[in-house]
Amino acid sequence: MALSxxxxxxVDLTDTFAFTGTVTGAGEIxxxxxxxxxxxxxxxxxxxxxxxxxxxxxxxxxxxDSFNIASGADNGNGDYTYTFTSAMSSANFESSATxxxxxxxxxxxxxxxxxxxxxxxxxxxxxxxxxxxxxxxxGDLA
Length: 142
Fold this sequence. Notes:
Structural class: mainly beta
Strand order of the largest sheet: 6-5-12-9
Strand content: 35-45%
Largest sheet: 4 strands, antiparallel
């Protein structure tokens, strides 16, 4: 039903039509919340599909922007450790590291714990190299 007030001269757009009812069917996303795919053929678990942490950092591990990352540490050339604000449930989480220059550098996950992740970035001569970097973490929070 359209929310408009018809008057003899046309539509009166000054009426605010304030809503005072209760919305049903809305609520929190829970651990078992699912969403259908665009075609509706499959569903995905909304909570499991979200990144649990991510960071964009400068070449000295300084945080440019982040989510669930408390701090970054520069361990030397191309060697960085990031500490989670909220711990992961285990060290068996998935992550992807992205160096700022794909043509000349690559990154590897050196170590993972429930509270930290260490990354190492290399240049095209396989030497550790400082680089602006990013990482996304997927898994379960503790």
